[in-house]
Structure formats: structure tokens, C-alpha cells
Amino acid sequence: MDRSLPLPVQKRRWFAPGGAQCRRDVRAPGMINIRKAGDRGHFDFGWLDTYHTFSFDQYYDPAHIHFRSLRVINEDRVQPAHGFPTHSHRDLEIITYILSGGLEHRDSMGNGSVIRPSDVQRMTAGTGVSHSEFNASNIEPVHLLQIWILPESQDLPPSYEEKHFSDEERRDRLRLIASNDGRDGSVTIHQDAEVYAALLDAGKAVTHTLAEDRYAWLQIARGAISLNEVELKEGDGAAVSNQSELTIKARDQAEVLLFDLA
Prior knowledge:
It is built from one helix and 22 strands. By secondary structure, the protein is an all-beta fold. Strand 2 and strand 3 form a beta hairpin. The model is unreliable at 1-29 (pLDDT under 50).
């Protein structure tokens, strides 16, 4: 499977400094637009079962190209002893978030590691990076989210970062895991965006305040929640605009990622 961008969205016009081109998808005032899990692009290749929230590779949906600078959320399940052979990217901020199992990473910068649940990996593709990703187990599948964020500028120097965020750090709170200034121990991404992760016990709630002219995307990795009383379940996503406060409440045990975007 080709992990590169499909031709309609590979053109450099998407990589405007400061994300200016990403502002074309402004939502109507005060809206939460739901992207249902079952409406995502889906392919089962045997060794890979994958869902695409936004257009990717063989899946192209002109209504779902990206949201602001958030370009890709792929939910992948890779079978034991399988994976993605060496392939190349450029001008992307790539975040890998493991839900279960282990993923072995190797790249042209000389990095090699196995990332597991609670690990967050960030790779700036910049002027160009080649890497491979394989299930580190011969027995158990690996379940992960791969996220692409459009960078604030082109041709950045390639770089790599990996950090661990314990369950305790994410339990019943929104833990910052990626930001443009690397604060609070988060990985550093080259875009005006923040990524938070939370593990919520049933009945627990967290809140997040959106600054004026900010947008949010909420991705439900596991479980079921309500977002400002809107019900969402595993695999669902929600695009939020013109809402000052977000309240996320778990209906059962849940894991969520929240993107705060310019």
C-alpha cells in the first residue's frame, strides 16, 4: 500500500505558510460536525485493516480532504509480522499514537525503535524522509492511529522525536502530547496546533476552552463519550467551530484525542 498522498492533494498549494490554505474549510457558526466511524474510507487487505477519516491513497472524498491543518487520521490494525516497507514522505508532521501492540520504526535519519501504548512518535518529514513501519510481534496485531498535520512551512530539516506519556498522566485529564513549542514535555510539531490525549473512566468529564478563532477536532479512539451533549462512539470524529468550551464526558471507559487548531 502506497502511504503517499493521493494525487489530488499532493500538490504544494496545500502547504501554505501559517496554514493559510487550510482556512478554506471554515464551518458554519457554532457547529459540531460529526464524522461517523462507518462513513470513513475502509480497506481490508488481510494484513492491514485500515480506516481513513480523510482522503488518503486509494480513498478520495472531496468533502473530507482535511480539517484546518489536520490532514490525515488513519486507524490501522496491522497483522503480526507484517507492515509497511520503506516509503518516503516530505512536508508533513507525522504523529504515531499506539493503542495496542508494538510498532517497529526505522528511518533514513538512522532512528530505530519499537513504540508501544503510551508512546508518542513525531517525525518531521520536511525535505524528505524514508521510513518503514512493521508490527514488532509475530503473535499479536498492532493497533494505531497515524496522524498527519500540514506544516507551517515547506522544506524543514527532517527530525524525529519520541516521548512516553503514562496512563496516569492521561487519566481523567487532557494531557498535552504535541504542540508547536514543546511545552509541558510534549513533542514539538511545526504548526500552530496542539494535540491532547485523555483516558476517561465511565462518568468522568474533562473540559477544554477554545480561544477565539480556534477550531477543534475530537477523535474517539475507544469507548463512547458525549461532546457538549452530542453522542459519539469509537471511531467517530467531530469538527468543532465557534464553540468556546468543550465538555467531553465518558459514557464508558474511553480514550480520546483532541486537536486544538488555528
